[in-house]
Each structure stands twice: as structure tokens, then as C-alpha cells.
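# nightly structure sweep
# worker-07 picked up a monomer target from the shared queue
# config: single-sequence mode, recycle default, output format = C-alpha cells
# input follows
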Amino acid sequence: MTELTAVRDTSHAKALAVLVAGAAIIGLAPILVRLADAGPAAIGFWRVTFAMPLLALIALRTDGGVGRPSKFALWAGAAFACDLGFWHYSIHFTSVANATVLTNLTPVVVTAVAWIFLKQRPAKLFVAAVGLAVAGAWMMAVGRGEHAAGANPPLGDALALTTAVWYALYFLAISAARRSVGATRVMFWSGVTSAPLLLAAALVLGEDIFPITAGGWAAVLALGVMHVAGQGSIAWALGRLPAATASVVVLVQPVVAAILGWLLFAEALGPIQALGAAIALGGVVLAQAASRKPASA
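# output follows
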């Protein structure tokens, strides 16, 4: 029994490390989206499109090919298309602060869905950890007082809140798909669904489909590589960790984004943001401790 426990702890620690690394890589997304010069939905289309050949190659080497699509992988792709589209537009209409904090309410949505529909009642300590992590993310966001409010703050805030719902559905669908399908195959088939949906949205909304500059092309290409490394790591870890726990861990994304903003765009971390980062990471650590304890009946 002791050896079995040690193996489980090692597997859990490895999955957690991969998840944190994937979340850190995804923290590059806001930087690259800012550097890209195409429409919001079009940027999402290029991100997924550039990622699919890499995913197919990895699947060929590791799983013998992409195989057949899983229904949950296709549902994940639909949710991810909505997630990217709504998030990019929320940044356009509201402040980066509001778009970041409202989108990162995903852990609350995941936990609520699992509680209401899957009858998975969370432990009280886990609920407290979610609140602590979200509060830290909120403090990091509101600490950026220099950002403009945006063209239409109420609409942007509504889109960001909707993004949190789509991202939660994406997490749950990926978690379900990973029960029977490898991470690379799940990512490939989710891309088969999300890419045409994002392109259709960009065309309907009259966006600029193609980046204008070489820097814009470099940004969307980097988004594709980031998608494979970041989302692929998250998808792999979701096959070994509870969806609610994983959704809290990925709150390290705003921490990484804030640090990169400071290094690349001279957006120094203020005291409120630094404190928020510490609180968010504290919530992540507390969530990990809570996830190892059984919830009350």
C-alpha cells in the first residue's frame, strides 16, 4: 500500500508540474495577441490552424496517427472556438484588467457545474481556495490602473464573463475526452472543429483575415506553437487531475502575463499586483492540498 501511494503521489506531482508549465506557456497568449495585427477571431483561427500540422505529426509518432474523432474532443473544439473568439473581443471592448479577471472566473464555473450536474460536492477548503485564487487574480487585474476602459465596457465585461463559461465547458469536455483518447489526438480533433468555426466568425464579422506585417505573421505562428505546447500540456494533465483542481492551477496564467508585460512592455508590477500574484499562487497551493482530502458527504 505504501508503494502504491508513493506511485500515485509521483504521478500526481508530475501531472501538476506539466499543468503548471502548460499554464505558464499559455500566459504568452495575451502578449502574442497584442502583437498580431489581424481580426480577433481570425487570430484564433491562425493559432489553431498553425497548431494542427504539429499535432498531427506528434500523433503520428506517438499514437500511430490521429485516429477517429471523439465526440467529447469535437465538443471541446466548439467550446474552444467560442472561448477564443469571445476573449479576443472582450479585450477589444473592455480593459485588459476586466477581461483578464472575469475570464479567470472559470474555476468557479467548473466547480459549480461539477457540483450541480455531476453531484461532485467540493470540500469546503477547496471552495475557499477557489475564492482566494480568484481574489488574487482580481487584485492583479485591478492593479493595472493605467489601462483604458475600452470602447464599450459593459459589452466587453459581458463577453469576458461568457468566456469564463466557454473555457469551463472546454475544460470539462477535454477532461471527459482524455478518459479514452490521448492528449494529442484530442487536441487535433478539437482543432478540426474550432478552426472552421473561428474562420466563419471572422468572415461574418468582416474582420481582417490575414496579418498585415511580418511581425503579425510571426505572432500568429508563435501562437500556434504555444497552442501545441501549452494547451497540449494542459490536455495531458487533465487526464490525470480533477478538472476543478486543474482549472484553479491555470490561474498562474495572469501571473506569467503580468511578468512578461513588465519585461517586454515596461508594465511594472505595482504593490497591489504583486500582492495579488502571491495570493493567487497561495490559492493554487491550497487547492492542491484540498483536492487530496475527501469532500464531506
